[in-house]
Design brief:
This protein has 17 helices and 13 strands. It is an alpha/beta fold.
Length: 432
C-alpha cells in the first residue's frame, strides 16, 4: 500500500492519482487504517487542487465499495427510478412525486436523509406522520417496492459507510463546498441504492447550497457524468430556490402540503415542479413514453385520485397513519402582517428557513431533536398583491415568545414594492 502521506503530497502538488490509489486511501480510511488527520489533509488538498473526472469517479466507486450495494432492478425485474434534491427551504418534493410515479405503474425506491441547518430532511418530515417507520431492512425495502410500488426509507448503516465518515470530516474541516466531493457524496449513495434511472434536482439561489446557475450547472454535469460512468441513466433539473418552495416550511406542515398536492390541491409552483419531475421519471422508466406523455399520465393520476390512493397505501405499508388530521399541530399560530399595500418583490428563502429552524423545525447540530409541529406558512409569495394589514404568512410555534421572534424574522424576509416583479419559472434549466 502506498503511504497516505505520499498520496497527500502528490495531490497537494497537483498530480492526478490513479483509481487504485484512491481506492486504497478511501477503503483504508473506512477500515481505520488511515487516521483522521491524514484524510483531513487529503481533503484540503482536493479542495484546492480539485479532482479530474476520472479521479471523481474513482473516489465515488471506492465509496460505493466501502459497503453493501443494492440492485433493485434485478430484484424486481423492472426498471426502478429515483430522484434526489440538493435540498432547500420547503422542499418536500419526493413525498409528492413518489406516489404519483407509483400510481403510473413505475417502481419508486428512495433512501433519504435527515436535515441539518435550514434545509429540512425528508425523513424528518415523514416522521411527523404517527407510526411511520423510516428504518426497513433491505429485504423489507425491496418487498415493499414490489408490492406497494414505492418506499422511502433511511439509508442503512451498511450503505456507503465511507460517505458518512468523509462527510463528518468535511463538515469540521471547511471542505464541504467542493463540486467533486459533493458529487461523489450524492452519487455514491444514489448508485449504491440500486435505482436504474435517477433525476437530480439541483436547487439554485438564496436558500440553496449552489447560489448561481454556473455553480449548479457544474455540479449537475459532474453528477450526470458519474451516473453515466456507473451505467445509470441520469438527468438533472436546475430549479429556483430564491424563495421557499410551495408555502409550507416545517415537517408536518410540509407533509400536509405534499399530500394536498398529490390530490390536486397544492400551490402552483410546487405542483409544477412535482409534475415536471414525475414526467422526467416516467420518461426514464420502462414504460417507453416521452416526457409529454409522462406529464399527461401524471396529471391523470392526480385528477382521478389514483395518486392519493397510492400515497395512502405507501404510508400504511410503513405503519403510518395517512389521515392528515392526525398530523401534529402547533399550539400557537401567529399572523405576520403587511405594513403597507403593494406586491411581494422578493421573499428570502434563507430567512424563512432560519425562522423555521429557530422555532425548532430543524437541527443546529446532528444531536438536536426536531419539533414536527412548528414552522412557517408563506401565504404570499413573489409577485402576489398585498393589502395593508393583510397576513403575509403564519408562524406555527410552541409558545408566544418563539412565535414573536419568528414573526419578526419572517417579516424581514419579505420585500414589498409598488409593482409586482415579472413571473419566473420554477424549472430554470434541464441538463441531460
Amino acid at each position: 500500500m502506498i503511504p497516505a502521506a505520499e498520496l497527500i503530497q502528490r495531490k497537494r502538488d497537483g498530480a492526478e492519482l490513479g483509481a487504485d490509489e484512491l481506492a486504497e486511501l478511501v477503503l483504508g480510511y473506512t477500515r481505520g487504517d488511515v487516521p483522521d488527520y491524514q484524510m483531513a489533509a487529503f481533503l484540503m488538498a482536493v479542495y484546492f487542487r480539485g479532482l479530474s473526472a476520472a479521479e471523481t469517479f474513482a473516489l465515488t466507486d471506492a465509496m460505493i465499495r466501502s459497503g453493501e450495494t443494492l440492485d433493485l432492478g434485478k430484484a424486481l425485474g423492472r426498471k426502478v427510478v429515483d430522484k434526489h434534491s440538493t435540498g432547500g427551504v420547503g422542499d418536500k418534493t419526493s413525498i409528492a412525486v413518489g406516489p404519483i410515479v407509483a400510481a403510473c405503474g413505475v417502481p419508486f425506491g428512495k433512501m433519504s436523509g435527515r436535515g441539518l441547518g435550514h434545509t429540512g430532511g425528508t425523513l424528518d418530515k415523514l416522521e411527523s406522520i404517527p407510526g411511520y417507520r423510516v428504518e426497513l431492512s433491505t429485504d423489507e425495502f425491496v418487498e415493499q417496492v414490489r408490492e406497494v410500488g414505492m418506499a422511502i426509507v433511511g439509508q442503512t448503516a451498511d450503505l456507503v459507510p465511507a460517505d458518512k465518515l468523509l462527510y463528518a470530516l468535511r463538515d469540521v474541516t471547511a471542505t464541504v463546498d467542493n463540486v467533486s466531493l459533493i458529487a461523489a457524496s450524492i452519487m455514491s449513495k444514489k448508485i449504491a441504492g440500486g435505482a436504474d434511472a435517477i433525476v437530480l434536482d439541483v436547487k439554485v439561489g438564496d436558500g440553496a447550497f449552489m447560489k448561481t446557475l454556473d455553480d449548479a450547472r457544474e455540479l449537475g454535469r459532474a453528477m450526470i457524468e458519474l451516473g453515466r460512468r456507473a451505467g445509470r441513466e441520469t438527468m438533472c433539473v436546475l430549479t429556483d430556490m430564491e424563495q421557499p418552495l410551495g408555502r409550507a416550511v416545517g415537517n408536518a406542515l410540509e407533509v400536509r402540503e405534499a399530500a394536498d398536492t398529490v390530490r390536486g390541491q397544492g400551490p402552483d409552483d410546487f405542483t409544477e415542479l412535482v409534475l415536471d419531475s414525475v414526467a422526467h421519471l416516467l420518461a426514464l422508466s420502462d414504460l417507453g413514453i416521452d416526457e409529454q406523455e409522462g406529464r399527461r399520465r401524471a396529471e391523470q393520476a392526480v385528477a382521478t385520485g389514483a395518486a392519493f390512493e397510492a400515497y395512502e397505501r405507501w404510508i400504511r405499508a410503513q405503519h403510518g397513519d395517512p389521515d392528515l388530521d392526525v398530523l401534529p399541530l402547533a399550539p400557537v399560530v401567529r399572523d405576520v402582517i403587511a405594513s403597507r399595500a403593494g406586491a411581494v418583490a422578493s421573499l428570502g428563502a434563507i430567512r424563512v428557513g432560519l425562522a423555521a429552524l429557530h422555532l425548532g423545525a430543524g437541527r443546529r447540530t446532528k444531536e438536536d431533536a426536531v419539533d414536527h409541529a412548528v414552522g412557517v406558512v408563506c401565504l404570499k409569495k413573489r409577485g402576489d398583491a398585498v393589502r395593508e394589514d393583510e397576513p403575509l404568512a403564519q408562524v406555527h410555534a410552541r409558545d408566544d415568545a418563539s412565535a414573536g421572534e419568528a414573526a419578526a424574522e419572517v417579516l424581514a424576509a419579505y420585500e414589498l414594492a409598488d409593482t409586482a416583479p415579472p413571473a419566473g419559472p420554477i424549472v430554470l434549466e434541464v441538463l441531460t
